Records
---
Amino acid sequence: MMMRRTLLLALAGLAAAPRTLVAQAAPMSHLSAYAFRFGALNGGDIALADFAGKPILVVNTASQCGYTPQYAGLQALWTRYKDRGLVIIGVPSNDFGGQEPGGAPEIARTAQDDYHVTFPLAAKAAVKGGGAHPFYRWAAAERPREAPRWNFHKYLIGRDGRLKAAFASAVDPSDPGLIVAIETELGA
C-alpha cells in the first residue's frame, strides 16, 4: 500500500512538472522541430512552435556563395506558398568556406536588398559540429547521412513538426522533387 501511494505521488509530481523541464530531459529523437527557436536577424526570436501545423523549410544560407542566387528561388517559393501555410526560414552560417563573414547588416543587405527576401531570417548560427545550433544537432541526429555539407542545404519539416526530407545544396528551390515534397506537406 505504501509503495502504491509513493508511486501515485511520483506520477502526480511528474504530471505537474513544467513541460519545459520534461522536454529538456528528453532524448533528441523524442523531440520535434517545435522544441527549437532561433534568434532572429533583426532581434527577437523565431520559435518553430509558433508555426505548428505548417510545413517549414529551414535553409542554411550564405551571402558570398555560388548558391546565393537561390535566395531568389526561395523568395519565389515563399511568394507562391506562404498563403497556403509554407514557412521558410533562412539561417545564415559561416561554416562552409567562410562565405558569411559579415554581421546582421551585411546579411540583410544581401538577402533583403539584393534578393528582396521577405521570409524570416535567423541570426547567424553554426550548422555543423559540436557548436552547431540545437536544431541542426537534432536534424543531424534524425538524418545523419543528410546533414548539411555546404550552404543552402534544405530541411523540410512537416505539419507534425517531424523532419520529412532533406535536400542538398545543389537542389534548386524550383526543383520538382522539392516542390512535390512541399505540396505533399501542404496537402497533409
---
Amino acid sequence: MRDIIVIGAGVVGCSIARELSKYNLDVLVVEKNSDVSEGISKGNSGIVHAGYNEKIGTLKAKLNIEGNKIFDDLSRDLQFPFKRNGAFILAFSDEEMKTLESLKENGEKLGVEGLEILTREEALNIEPNLNKEIVGVLNVKTSGIVSPYEMTIALAENAAENGVEFKLNSKVTSIEKISEGYKVTLNNKELVSGKIIINASGLEGAFLNNLVSMSKREINPVKGEYCLFDKVAGAMINKTLFQVPNKLSKGVLVTPTAEGNLLVGPNAVEGKTLETSREGIDEILDKSKKSLEELPVARILNTFSGIRPKTKGGDFIIEEVEDAKNFINVIGIDSPGLTAAPAIGVYVVNMIKERLDLVEKKNFKKTREKIVRFAELSLEEKNKLIKEKPAYGHMVCKCEFITEGEIVEAIHRPIKALTVDAIKRRTRASMGGCQGIGCTLPISKILSRELGIDISDINKNSEGSPVIGFKED
C-alpha cells in the first residue's frame, strides 16, 4: 500500500508531488493522459498573478500571494522559463480610475507590494504601443509570466528524481474505501491502494469526490479561447496588459509569453469542449484591440482554448472530505491556480503532517537541469556538443532551431516524452511559423526509433490521435 496517491498530474498535482518528495514517503501520481500538463495546465494565460484583486480572507488570496513569492527561487532551482515582467491594469474613464484605486487599496490590505497608479503619460512612456485613449493604469510590479507546461514538467521531473512514481495513461474509474485507506481502480482493471488520496484531478474533481462522499460536489467548466502570435508581435510590449476585471474572469489580456510570443485572451464561455469558434476568436481580438493601439492579426500563429474549473463558492476547495477520512480534495483550482500551485503544495503537505509522521530526506535533490537549448549556446559550445553527440548537428525544427539531440533528450527524461505534443512542450519543436508542417514527421520518426515502436503508433497527443494512420511496409 502506498502512503499517498495523488490523482492528477497538472501543475497543482505536480506541485504537491514535488513537495511530498522532500520526505521519506511512498508516493504515486496517476494521470489519465499520456503526459503531465495535458489538461487545464497546458491551456491558460501563463500569468503569475500578484493577487491584488482577490477577496480578503479567502484561500485564493492567501495562496496566490504566497505562491507568487516562491517563483523566483523555484524557477531558478528547476530551470523553467519565468520573468517578473510586471502588469498594467488599464483604465479608460474616470470611473475605471476609481476602480483602480479600489484594486490598489485591496491589494495593499492583502500585502501585495509594488502597486502604484500611473498617469497616461507615465504609462505611455513605459509602453508606447498602448491604446492612446487610456486615462491611467495600475502598475503591478510583482506580476510575472511563466511557461505553465514547462513549469509542470519541471516539477514532475524533479519529483520523479526524488522517488515519486508517475503512472500515465491511467484513468481512475473507481475508488473504494478499505480499512487502511482506499483502493483505486485504473482503466477498469489495475488496482492500486493508498493510505491517503489527494484529489487534484481538475475537471474530474467533483466526479472523484462523489465516488467516496455523500456530500456531492459540482464543477462548472468555463472555456477560455486564445490567440497566439509570433515573436515579432511579442516584442511590441513588455508588460502584461489587463483591462478592469469583472466577476467571471480577469478579462481579456494582452501579454508577452515567457518564450517571447504574444498572447491574447481569454473570453469566458460555459462548457468544456476545447474547439475554438470564429465568434470567440473575433470576441477576444476585438476586446484586445482596446489595449493595444494596433494588433498585428497577420502574425497569428494559432488559436487554442483552455478550461477553468469553476465552483459555486468561488474559492479554492482544499480540505479533507468530511465523510471520507484521509481523502483530500484539491479542487476548484481556477485562476490564480497556476500562481498558487507552489503554495498549494506546501499547504497540502502541512495537512499531511497532521495525518502521518513525516521524516525529511537527507538526500533531497532540490534542483533540476533543463534540456540543453542548442540555439542558446555559444559557437564554441555548439561545436563541442556536436563532436560529443552528433545528433545535435541535425536541425529538425528549423523555425525554432531545435536539434535531434534535444528531441532525443526529451524522450529519455525522468518523465518521458511519448508524443509529438510532449516533445513540443519540452523543446518548442513545431511551435514556430510553420506550426509543425516541416517537423512533425521527422519528430515522429525519432520517437518511433527511440521508443522502439511502429511510427503508426506515434500519437500527436493523447490516445487515438495517430500522426500516420497506416503501418509502413
---
Amino acid sequence: MKLLLIAFSSSDAAQSGGFIQALGVEADVIQVTSQPADAFASSLAEEAKGYSHIAAVSSMQSKDALAYLAGVLDFAMVTDVIGINSANSFRRPIFAGSMIATVETDGPTALTFRPSGFAKVDGPSATPFDATSPSKATVTSESSRGTGRPDLGSAKIVVSGGRPLKTAEQFEAVIGGFADSLGAAVGATRAAVDSGIAANELQVGQTGKVVAPDLYIAAGISGSTQHMAGIKDSKLIVAINTDANAPIFEAADLGLVGDLYSVLPELQNLLKQ
C-alpha cells in the first residue's frame, strides 16, 4: 500500500505527519498550485495510478479536487477523517460533530483529513507538481491576504470574534490587535464572515476551519453547534460574552461575563506590564 498526499497550501505538508504516521503506509507528497478541479484531476490521474490512498488536508479546495479525482480513478471518497482504525477503516464526525461515524472502504480510497485529529508530527517535504491539462475554467488571478500571523489551522493560540463586531475595521482593530499581542492566529464565526466583517478563510466551525490550539479565546461568540464543532479539541477555551447564559460557557474552561470592548483592552494592557 502506498499514499499520495497532495498539499494545496504551503502548510499542508508540515501538518500531515501525524496522519501519515497513523495510516502507516509509505507516502509521496506533492505540492500543487490552484487549478480548477477538472484540470487538476486530468493532470494527476496518470500520476495517481498505483497508489492505494490519495489524501489531502480538509479544505473546500481539496474536497472539490479529490472528489473529482476519485470519480476519474473510481476510488472511494471519505471526507474530514479524524481517526484511522485500519488502512480501510476511518472515523469522521457527523451531525455537527455530535457523533463519530466509522466508514469502511473495500478498495483504493481518497481522503481529506483534519490535522487536529492526529498527533503533531512534522510532515515530509513536498515535491512541486504542475497541473497543466486544459480546463473549461481558468484561474486568471490570485491574491494573498498575507498578515504575518500564524496559520489558523495549526496555531497554538487562536483569538476569534463574533457577531458584536460591526465593521471589518473594528474586527481587525479589536480582534486582530489582541491576537497580535499574543502572537496568535485570528478566527471568526460564520455570522461574522457572512456579514462581511471577516474574511472567509478565517471562519472556524463545521463549515470552516477545525482548530485544536493550546488556547482558544472566543470573544463575543455565543457558541452555536456549528462553531463548537470546530473548536472542541482545543486544550483550553476562554469565553468572553455579555450573556451569562450563552451556550459557549458550557464548553469553556474559563468564562468572563463582560463586554469584549472593555475586557480585551484590559487584558492587552496586563500583557504589556
